[in-house]
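quick one
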Amino acid sequence: MPLQVAALVNGWPSHEAAFFVFPHDSILAMSDVLMHTYQRLPVTFDHGDGAWLVDTQGKRYLDALSGIAVCGLGHAHPAVTAALRDQAGKLLHTSNLYGIAEQEQLGEVLCRHAGMERVFFGNSGAEANEAAIKLARLHGHNRGIDKPAIVVMDNSFHGRTMATLSATGNRKAQAGFEPLVQGFVRVPYGDLEAVRAVAENRSDVVAVLLEPIQGEGGIRIPQDGYLEGIRSLCDANDWLMMLDEVQSGMGRTGQFFAFQHSAAVPDVMTLAKALGNGVPIGACLARGDAARLFGPGSHGSTFGGNPLVCRAALTVCETLQADDLTNRASALGKRIVQGFRDQLHDVAAVEDIRGRGLMIGIELAQPCAALVGMALEAGLLINVTAANVVRLLPPLILSDEEADHLVQTLAPIIRQFLTDA
Ligand SMILES: Cc1ncc(COP(=O)(O)O)c(C=O)c1O
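structure w/ pyridoxal-5'-phosphate:
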């Protein structure tokens, strides 16, 4: 029996979700033992290899989403697998009560790449952003501000903990969880004048938190000069510039970190997702005074930065460099964006095809969550975010042929979807 499945936006039921008919006979019944936080697609994967996933029925899918920007090196990468095997046989976890050599090595590597001085390791993007928010509050209190506020952006996404949820610019994600955490001032993304107006009108602001490219918000790439403008306002007002690179970091955009496309360097930067290629790890990096705000007892995490996860992340960093994957991401991104432009230039309802490296968005004139199921049927994993933006976050190890396969599979599906609509 065909089953109706709600289309998804990043694993959450989309407000605008269309329903599509999923014609598999072999739909897997979802276990009722799990809390219903995700509306999952009717597929379960058995194993992966590079850019491909194989489901429990043996069907192969090209993964153009990488577990939402996590598996940048693809699935079962031999170097990551070997490092994890080796480390698992040696030492998984001790505690942050003791020295952890792999954590120190990883901290050095990340600071060198980012121009930062110190790192705190947690387990997720939300936790990395929680650390950043705590740093901003300490910075504010040091300046004698009792109730420090942080400027955050419309359509941003920073996580699901109470503070990061409150910072997130999406009412749907917040609804039902009030009272929200206080101390956030929201402005439109990309609008420097709005940030300047906050500086002129409020004396309680201590930091700005933003994504250098908005991911969940619809692959929004700000105008050239935006990050530099934020940097100047932070310098002029003694604010911390805090960049959330949870989705955009680790080579995906064609630079190690997306801010490196600009001349601005943040005071605080957060990472997670691709840092461990699937092993849960988050990091909050800082430089200057911000790097010295935490002292013993002011923050912590049981698992944060344990030997296993740091070994995985070290291997990710080494592989990105050894295989020149940042430049590869840039070249692949151009090839894919050009491919879609060539194939879809005559389709009026395709409003924009944009990308930086392998953060790619195809914006349509109408909600298009149903495309996720159509692509799945065709053996392709994609995502739709912000209701009408097809989001592609393929792994950086994609071959040219796989990149072309992605375009040649998805472009006709988009065309057909828009024709049928
Ligand atoms: C920019 C950004 N920040 C933070 C998060 C939250 O990360 P996590 O789900 O690991 O807590 C995400 C997740 O999508 C994200 O895209």
